[in-house]
Amino acid sequence: MSGEELSEFEKQRLANIAERDALLKKLTQDAQSSGLFPPKMPKASTGDKTKPKKKPAPKVKKEEDTPLPRRISSRLRGIAAESEVAKRKAEEQYVAVQEAERAKRARKSDAFSLNEMLVSGQKLSGDSLIGVDVVTKGVAMPYQRTFGDEDIEKTTDKDLKALREEMRGLSLWQAWEPNRIKLTPERIYSMTFHPSETKPLIFAGDKMGHLGVLDASQEKPVSAIKHEDDDDEDDDDPDPVFTTLKPHTRTISCMTIHPSKPTHLYTASYDSSIREMDLEKTTSTEQYAPESTSEDVPISGVDMAADDPNCLYWTTLAGEFGRHDMRTPRKGSVTTWELSEKKIGGFSLYPTHPHYFATASLDRTMRLWDLRKLSHKVPVPVGEHVSRLSVSHAAFNSAGQIATSSYDDTLKIYDFGAKGLASWKPGHSLPDNEMKPDTVVRHNCQTGRWVTILRPQWQLNPQSHIQRFCIGNMNRFVDIYSSSGDQLAQLDGEGITAVPAVAVFHRSKNWVAGGTASGKICLWM
């Protein structure tokens, strides 16, 4: 074959390659303009002369006969899906995820045993959570103190000074530092003491339905005390013994133990149920919940009359007030009233006359009610007081006084006992001027979204004539006030690293506990 023939052949081959490249470029441009991307094509080689491949000249095809690139998802192509099938599939997946999340948070109406509730820890003694002896024996600068020893020293009232000195004598539990007493996995929302005076037994409920139980009469092992200053002996310094259970699926908002039934703990939850835990058998049974498990009515508070251990009273975030006698079948025996269009954050019964009760609401009101004259159609309160912002809680004491906390940064004290509350006849009402608080105390209540709302809690059976209540302080203290608004103490201690927002008094002993957003507790005795 002559050089001239080879030269003509080479020209033809290069012409074919150029024609093919032009066609591919046109196809690529057309695909890009329509939002599509063709698959990668091998690059043409123009310098491989050692091994020429004899291929037929590419046949020019019409544009409509060009094969489409491989299928690529709409998401990768960067264009919105318009397929009805894709939309329906996405909606089904979203609904499935929502249902799974709802099922996780739905209440469980079954009775639970210890093994079914136990999350961590161990039983405190024997085969029960409480020992036999319990049953038989019955706005400031951060961290800046606003009440101290100098305030006590300049007190002129002898009784008040004596009580302030008594409260000053309370000290933080020394056995373990507060940062080692993690009673619940999540933020503590509610707490209570067992009524026993023989040992400080504390119950704490958290955001996810966990219940922590701590016996604070336990002592640190002797081996741990010997080595507490030795950094190499960490294994000989065990944490305190406590038990963590999970009787609810959502926040435990409130709890109570009736003094005449010391072996039974009642817990109310945002999962719409009130459960009764037998502390001896370590079982939990549902005492109240809506008839349908799909009905979501979070319970914000629970209380019991001092002279009736069989009747439960509660409020809800939907503004309802309810009552149920546990000796009767649930169906048909539950009575409810709609007292507010907005949520009721807290309530309490008047201990000595439980037909009176007080509610605190998001609608900025504190209302006093008489159960004897409470209409279901149009319930009318005995009286109401409106604050500048929402009222978080209303707590009654045995003297007929109500303490409230509000987002207007005040603690208000209403003395209805002095106005003859115990002798009022059914239908008695109070004008607005008689519903005004008798005492207003400035107190920072701006907890934000990460700290549990501050609520006052009275000591129900104080061992003196001076009534007192405790409340958390945003500067990492617990404040104690008298019913006249005088500050009695500001409790603190080493190792408190968070706000003890949930503060509670033992009903008769000078024991105070505070719970934090990290699930840890502080205890003063």
UniProtKB/TrEMBL annotation:
Keyword Secreted found: no
Keyword DNA-binding: yes
Example GO BP: regulation of DNA damage checkpoint
Protein name as catalogued: DNA damage-binding protein CMR1
Protein function: DNA-binding protein that binds to both single- and double-stranded DNA. Binds preferentially to UV-damaged DNA. May be involved in DNA-metabolic processes.
Organism of derivation: Aspergillus nanangensis
Biased composition (Acidic residues): 229-239
UniProt similarity note: Belongs to the WD repeat DDB2/WDR76 family.
SUPFAM superfamilies given in the database record: WD40 repeat-like
Keywords, alphabetical: DNA damage, DNA-binding, Repeat, WD repeat
Disordered: region residues: 29-83, 215-239, 282-301
Pfam families: WD40
First and last residues of every WD repeat: 356-372
A GO CC term attached to the entry: nucleus
GO molecular function: DNA binding
Domain of life: Eukaryota
